Amino acid sequence: MELGSFENNGDPLSSRFPRVGKGRWESVPDSDWNDWRWQLRHRITTLEQLEALLPLTETERRGVAGAGTHLALAITPYFFNLIDPNDPECPIRRQVVPRGEELVAAPWEMTDPCGEDAHMPVPGLVHRYPDRVLFLVTDRCAAYCRYCTRSRVVSGVGDQHLETNFNAAIGYIRAHREIRDVLLSGGDPLLFSDDRLERLLAALRAIPHVEFLRIGTRIPIFLPQRITPSLCAMLRKYHPLWISIHMNHPREATHETREACARLADAGVPLGNQTVLLRGVNDNPSVMKELVHRLLMMRVRPYYIYQCDLVRGTHHLRTSVRRGLEIMEALRGHTTGYAVPQYVIDAPGGGGKVPVAPDYVLAHDAERVLIRNYEGRVFEYPEPADAGVYAEPPVPAGTRGEAAVLAIRSALVQEWPSGAVREVVHGRHC
Ligand code: SF4
Fold first, then answer.
1. β-pair type (342-347, 352-355)
2. Is 170 near ligand 1, meaning CB less than 6 Å away?
3. How many CB atoms lie within 10 A of CB 376?
4. Residues 221 and 303 in one domain
5. What is the rounded distance in angstroms from the CA atom of residue 22 to the CA atom of residue 225?
């Protein structure tokens, strides 16, 4: 192909990101529809509003009726339009429409599964890891996820209330020189007005030992209209500032959300995505692969897949760790490395994030490590001496090195009789 035959055809990927459009709100002027405050004012928050738009199942009706006692119902009109009204198991619907199962807690479920309250030196500030803090700046979100880890405080209808002491929290960060990383979360910090958010960012940026600011938000997914040029112009003054969005299903990767992420990326904000592994939403390798591919096209790096925390009333949304490992197995090596997030379990009670991964190291001794790749082929890699200096002649082929590898191989073939282990590729020193 000659260089001259390339044409600027605009955005060749745009057809992969459909516009959501106004749907049931067709008569609303564009100026309102695209106004994030209009979207917030017109959220669906009651059983009557929801039933008028969507035929509800019996469990959903019970769930909505009970939502006011533990985690409120709220769905923006924009996000509502992603729901398939004819599918009671629609993956978008499962995330935001309450169900009766929420009203029953499994014995292992907890109010505060990550033990945040026990690690709060001042109200609203969680200091669990030595060098970083989680700053809970609001209890409100644009819409409420039925599996929310902080449902004990988020939305303001549960037993607990978030009473963040901003002055005390900033004073604590200022006094603790080991804190180099501050994550703003909640609730959703991007629900603040530009001015209010800027005052907070400016106060944190003025602390010399704070190197790194982060915001955790689902606004680009629930309310992309909020990502205005003026918000982005303000955010870019406080770099290095990173943002973690929260997308769970490829259907959420719309034209509107892609544009919102592009505005943030163009403002120099590195973007990562956190996905919660949810039954009936994304517990499927092909769905997850489509999601991570769309994220890369949106300039968002898939960052974490979280095993769903043990929050009260979320057992119907939780899927097994085994399933999560299968999904990771289906991603690693089968797609771009940038597209592969880390799968983590937030250890119950405050143990922090623990990475979990399929086993790629099959055996390991002083002389070698046996590893397998994504195709099930097994390789031997020589383990260098600690000093990193070659000191002894290699073990001749057919002696103890060979025998050990053959023994491990035979054990592996027994363990995976399906033929996943196809061969052992020996390192040169055997
Ligand atoms: S956006 Fe985040 S904080 Fe808000 S309800 Fe969803 S998971 Fe919870």
1. antiparallel
2. no
3. 14
4. yes
5. 13
Q: Are residues 283 and 314 in the same domain?
A: yes
Q: Can you give the residue range of the structural domain that contains 380?
A: 361-425
Q: Whose structure tokens read 């001015």? A: 195
> Pairing relation of β-strands 132-136 and 125-129?
antiparallel
* Radius of gyration from C-alpha coordinates of the chain: 25
Confidence of residue 430 (pLDDT cuts 50, 70, 90): very low
Q: Is the CB of 144 under 6 A from ligand 1?
A: yes
User: Which one is catalytic: 353, 374, 377, 422?
Assistant: 353
Q: Is-cis flag, bond preceding 115, omega within 30?
A: no
Residues 17-56: tens digit of each pLDDT: 999 999 999 999 999 999 999 999 999 999 999 999 999 9
Query: For residue 2, is it within any domain?
Result: no
Gap from CA of 246 to ligand 1 centroid (Å): 9
Tell how far the Cα of 71 is from the centroid of ligand 1, in angstroms. Answer: 10
Among the options 16, 22, 61, 128, which is catalytic? 128
Judge if pTM exceeds 0.85.
Answer: yes
Kindly report the protein residue whose alpha carbon is nearest to atom 6 of ligand 1.
Answer: 145
